[in-house]
Amino acid sequence: MCEITGCGSHREMPPIKVSDRERRLFLKGLASLPLATVLAYPEFSRAAAASTEQIQLTTEGGKQVNAAVAMPNADNAPSVLLIHEWWGLNDQIKSVAADLAKQGYVALAVDLYDGNVATTPDGARSLMQGVDAAAATDTLVSWINYLKNHSATNGKVGTVGWCFGGGWSLNASLSAAVDATVIYYGNVKKQTASLSALKSPVLGHFATEDGWINREMVDGFVDAMRGAGKSDDLTVHWYEADHAFANPTSARYDAEDAALSWQRTSAFFKDHLAGS
To answer: Rounded to whole angstroms, how far apart are CA atoms 4 and 34?
Structure first.
């Protein structure tokens, strides 16, 4: 697992730089910046996160849960459900939701930690281990149904998650029919029989140097998908990087691979979520 201050050493690459003019315009809401740039600057992440709105829902199991939603400037929009890393629903994930809204999606970032956000690895581990699987499934299925029936959406829903959230992106798609599933270095250890419930195509981003979500696990997932007759529904990309390569707050961040993976994610959602 990664610490909030990082997981190793950055690859040697120039830092992301923003001019004073770009900074002022972005903070005033008068200009856009690439997602990687927004995430690399805490002040930008805070500003982007502030553009989301907190909403509540009573789940099908009767629990009151929260999420942050970012709305597009469009009607009949597709939607994306975002699931946070082991840190919780922080500004980083809310910023990604804001970026997806700019792309034309109703973007809803769920909170599986009941409002708690960790700032230390021990705190994150405690929160992650405290998640009840049945309650989390109830939360995710309820939000998926919320998005399907929202008056501003076209009824199509995609899921995306990172690390802890990557595994839950897959779990959510196994528990409720969605239209696209994206996994960033999440736990994909599944039995063939369990994958029969999967209705959506799956896009997976994995890192060659990841010692946890490793090639053995991912190859097992590929085999299980094949056994379930779903090989054509799976696309896997490998990056010469390490776990959390798409998180600019991680010392394992790889700007080039993060940008490429996000480009692929955006194209995947566009292919499978556009239209009614």
So the answer is: 22
Reported pTM: 0.91
The model's pLDDT over 1-13, given as tens digits with 9 standing for 90+, comes to 343 333 333 444 4
- Asked whether 269 and 80 are in contact (CB, 8 A), the reply is yes
Question: What distance in Å separates the CA atoms of residue 14 and residue 7, rounded to the nearest whole number?
Answer: 19
Tokens representing residue 96 in the block: 């990604």
- 35 domain-assigned: no
pLDDT tens per residue, range 101-134: 999 999 999 999 999 999 899 999 999 999 999 9
Cα–Cα distances in Å, from 60 out to 52, 106, 109, 135, 261?
24, 21, 18, 10, 34
Backbone φ/ψ region at 115: left (φ over 0), alpha (ψ -120 to 50), beta: left
Q: Is the pLDDT of residue 142 over 90?
A: yes
Say if strands 180-184 and 153-162 run parallel, antiparallel, or are unpaired. parallel
What's 80's domain CATH number?
Answer: 3.40.50.1820
The strand ranges marked E within the chain are 53-58, 64-70, 77-83, 106-110, 153-162, 180-184, 202-207, 234-239
d(CA 174, CA 258): 26
Instruction: Evaluate whether residue 59 is within a structural domain.
Output: yes
Half-sphere exposure of 166 (CA within 13 A, CB side): 19
- Tell me the mean pLDDT in the region 204-208: 98
Tokens 């230390």, located at residue: 120
Q: Which domain holds residue 82?
A: 52-273
